[in-house]
Amino acid sequence: MERERVRWGVLATGGIAASFTANLLDMPDAEVVAVASRSDASAKAFAERFGIPRAYGDWSSLAEDEDVDVVYVATPHSAHRAAAGLCLEAGRAVLCEKAFTLNSREAEELVTLARSRGLFLMEAMWMYCHPLIRKLKALVDDGAVGEVRTVRADFGLAGPFSPAHRLRDPAQGGGALLDLGVYPVSFAHLILGEPSEVTARAALSDEGVDLRTGMLLSWESGAHALLDCSIDAGTPVTASITGSQGRIDIPHGFFYPDRFVLHRDGREPQEFTAQAGDGPRDSLRHEAGEVMHRVRAGDTESPLVPLAGSLAVMRTLDSVRERIGVRYPSEG
């Protein structure tokens, strides 16, 4: 039976918006009906590139478009609260890019707003929707490696990024942590939940954002996670989970894996590989599919990317920033 098509609006026209839109256009049950930017020229160019019928040079027009079922918010972190909030106020379901917001206060505001309106809201943590990550999570939950002792994960880019780049701009929530560190932190949360203690150190830029940050998260169970992120040093971008009875290793690109290896004590290593059509960037397609499934069902959140989990990650990121001394202009 043919599924009801879900009509998307895309808010912002950057690289991730383009990648997500390209994936939507390959999905028979998705339709991209509108795009918005702060500039008419940018919106029109994006619309022409992807064959989108309506282009708006302001966010409000997209939010108020009655033909839009769900809005994908792909602005910089600093604008997530305003953009997603505008769409929720207008009655639109929202998929909002990661990091969810600048801080946990803003995230709480969005969640409260969505719940008060009975609207679907989800953070675009595509990693959680990837079939191999879901398989890995199920294996860990089933005790494949025993009791989890440590998690390690990293995400670093070599750069260099100029002081004018958004990754160096405090006003846009720049720095390694919110843009890249959110992946290792979210991976640790997926496996162990919210930590009881956070320790962090960072090297800051002249602008006051973190160039690189190292984190040690601890849990009451005695487990800990060693995580790092960087915008001035390329890292392996790998992850591992070590338990009392084994280990799981994910090679380069841990948040969009094509394989992982399970090592169990006394057994041969077991490799799990992605199915055809589950390439690195297909996580966006799985993410979109999850959103459309939930919107059609009338759900207000996804069990794969629960709002409580997104709020917990934001609290951890807040704790890291408090310890490394990073504060954004809009926070006063």
Give a structural overview.
With 332 residues, the protein is α/β, with parallel strands linked by helices. It is built from 9 helices and 14 strands. The protein has helices at 15-25, 40-50, 59-63, 80-89, 104-117, 131-141, 176-192, 283-297, 307-324, and strands at residues 6-11, 30-36, 54-56, 70-73, 93-96, 121-123, 148-156, 197-204, 210-218, 224-230, 239-243, 246-250, 259-264, 270-273. The strands form 2 sheets. It has an 8-stranded mixed β-sheet, covered by helices on one side. Strands 3-2-1-4-5-6 form a 6-stranded parallel β-sheet, sandwiched between helices. β12 and β13 form a beta hairpin. α4 (80-89) packs parallel to α5, α5 (104-117) runs antiparallel to α9 and α7 (176-192) crosses α9 (307-324). The mean pLDDT is 95.
In terms of DSSP E residues, the strand content is: 15-25%
> Structural class, judged by helices and strands?
alpha/beta
Strand order of the largest sheet: 8-9-10-7-11-12-13-14
Q: Give the SSE order as H and E letters.
A: EHEHEHEHEHEHEHEEEEEEEHH
Report how far the terminal alpha carbons are from each other.
53 Å
* Global geometry: globular
Q: Portion of residues in helices?
A: 25-40%
* Alpha carbon gyration radius: 20 Å
Mean pLDDT, all residues:
95
Low-confidence stretches: none
Number of strands: 14
